[in-house]
Structure formats: structure tokens, C-alpha cells
Design a protein that fits this description.
By secondary structure, the protein is of the alpha+beta class. It has two domains: 158 residues, Jelly Rolls; 103 residues, Homeodomain-like (Arc Repressor Mutant, subunit A). It has eleven helices and nine strands. 28% of the residues are buried.
């Protein structure tokens, strides 16, 4: 199943329900240029995520760190990590995404499996992601198991849920033994709370004129330090992020309301309808009018 847009709340948290409460896992195919804005926008979620690149080269970004993966390579993204994905250098790319709630592999919170082998690694802020390739035996094995999970999920043969659970536990066991244990929970870490404060400010004020001083005051930094810190983590400037978020909101308004293009432009904080149209077309390849006509 192709996902064309990700539903997120005001805190950039994804609100999509992955699977069901009985079997909390969902697997998606993502052809990046088919997403609304031509890339997978910044978001985070409680679920754990694995990805396998099946076409081209994908530029993932996790909490400000860029990971470039080619076809056949994979990625683990830990719970609650801000991340995004886009084509690398305009190379048409696609990947398979596995999203599942940690409870699928630990059962219940008081379980010894959760206490010893899962929760400590979910809560360790040093563990953001892990890259998989075929250069290391255990990582190569993980990639094969993910492919098995994908097949089981789509074929739905008798016992497929059990098989998927067994494979996920096997993958997690390999990661505990070969990757997670190298991280110490008392290492110095970079605090991302300021980035989340900036994001929340943008989401609450995108309809207004936003200036850098207001944002830097929110996080008690100088304007230049604020810009550097945001760029380091988000891999884009603050004002690029503001424009992108305004475009995401405008896309929803175009589809769900009958407001005029001009009204939507001003509601989303653009200074004029012409500037909105220019930015929207630059991002999506079509004008707001054409986009509305095609999708409403």
C-alpha cells in the first residue's frame, strides 16, 4: 500500500494508526515522489520503524543526522525520533516501511522481556537509528528477515502473525547482542528539546508573520545560534521549515474546504496569493488550483 501523505498533529507526531490493537503492525510501500510534497515530511511516532530501500537512493534524516541508503540497504529508527525522507539528488526512489508498536514484541509492560531487553533501549536517547547492509553477517541476516516479514504480511498464510512475531523477535535479539549494548545511557547527549520548542512555535504561529527574534527568544538563544542549531538537526533552515509547514497545511485546506486560493494563502501565513502559488508549484509541480481539481 502506498502512503501519499502522513497525518500529524501540532507537535509533529504522526497520528496514523498502524495495524490494530490486536496486531499493531503495518507495512507500506513508499514511492517518495508520489507523496503530496514530493518527500516524506518530518514526523515522529511511538512505533518502531524499519525501512528497506527497494529502488534508487534515499536520503533519510533522523534527529538532524543524514543517512544516505542505496537499493538493498535498510534502516532502523527508534521510537520518538524526528525523521524525514527524500530522493537523493532527484533520483527516483522507493522503500518499504515497517511500523509496529513495541508491545507487539514485549506483550505487556511488566514482562521481563520488556524490562531487560526492550524498554532500556527505547529510553536511551543515544540510540536513534541503525543502518543495515550486506557487509556484516548479522545485518545481512536482518535484511533477509525483513524481506520474510514483508512476504508473510502480504500473503497472509495460516500462522503469518506468529511467523512475523518470531522474525521480529529474532531481529531484536540480534540488535541487542550486536548493536544496542555498545551504547551507554550515561554518555553526554545532545538535547533536542529546543528543536521541539521551535517546531511547536511554528505550528502554533504559522498563520502569522514569524520573525527570527521571536523564535530565538523562545529558546533563549541568539538568532545566529538558533539558526545553526536548527539547521544542524533538521537539515534545513528555520524559514524553509516554516514555508514547508505552511504548504502542508494549505494542501489539506485545498482538499477539505471550498475556501478561495487567496483566502488559503493568507490563512497559512503567506504574504500574498502570488507568493503562495509560486511556492506551492515549486514544491508540488502544479498550481494550487490544479492540485485541488485533481484531488478533491
Amino acid at each position: 500500500m502506498q502512503v501519499y501523505d502522513i497525518n500529524i498533529d501540532e507537535n509533529q507526531r504522526e497520528t496514523t494508526k498502524h495495524g490494530s490493537s490486536e496486531f499493531p503492525i503495518a507495512i507500506y510501500s513508499t514511492q517518495i515522489n508520489k507523496n503530496v510534497l514530493g518527500f516524506v515530511d518530518w514526523h515522529w511516532h511511538e512505533e518502531l520503524q524499519f525501512c528497506i530501500v527497494i529502488k534508487g537512493i534515499v536520503n533519510f534524516n533522523v534527529e538532524g543526522e543524514t543517512i544516505i541508503l542505496s537499493q538493498g540497504e535498510g534502516l532502523f529508527i527508534n521510537s520518538q525520533q524526528l525523521h524525514s525522507a527524500k530522493n537523493h539528488e532527484d533520483i527516483e526512489s522507493a522503500y518499504i516501511c515497517f511500523d509496529f508498536h513495541p508491545s507487539l514484541i514485549y506483550g505487556f509492560a511488566g514482562n521481563i522481556i520488556n524490562i531487560k531487553y526492550i524498554r532500556p533501549y527505547l529510553d536511551n536517547p543515544m540510540i536513534k537509528y541503525c543502518v543495515f547492509d550486506n557487509k556484516t553477517d548479522w545485518k545481512s541476516s536482518v535484511l533477509k528477515e525483513l524481506e520474510e516479514i514483508y512476504n508473510e504480511y502480504n500473503e497472509e498464510n495460516i500462522g503469518f502473525e506468529l511467523k512475523i512475531l518470531m522474525l521480529l523477535l529474532s531481529i531484536w535479539n540480534k540488535m541487542v547482542k550486536n548493536y544496542f549494548t555498545i551504547f551507554s545511557s550515561n554518555k553526554l547527549i545532545y538535547n533536542t528539546s529546543r528543536i521541539k520548542i521551535i517546531i511547536n512555535y511554528v505550528h502554533n504561529h504559522y498563520m502569522e508573520k514569524i520573525n527570527l527574534k521571536d523564535i530565538s527568544d523562545e529558546v533563549n538563544l541568539s538568532r545566529s545560534a538558533c539558526c545553526r542549531e536548527f539547521k544542524k538537526y533538521m537539515n534545513c533552515s528555520i524559514f524553509e521549515y516554516i514555508t514547508n509547514y505552511r504548504l502542508v497545511v494549505s494542501e489539506n485546506l485545498l482538499i477539505t474546504t471550498n475556501e478561495s486560493i487567496t483566502d488559503i494563502a493568507y490563512q497559512c501565513g503567506f504574504g500574498s496569493a502570488s507568493y503562495f502559488i509560486e511556492k506551492f508549484k515549486l514544491q508540488t509541480g502544479v498550481s494550487p488550483f490544479v492540485y485541488r481539481k485533481k484531488n478533491k
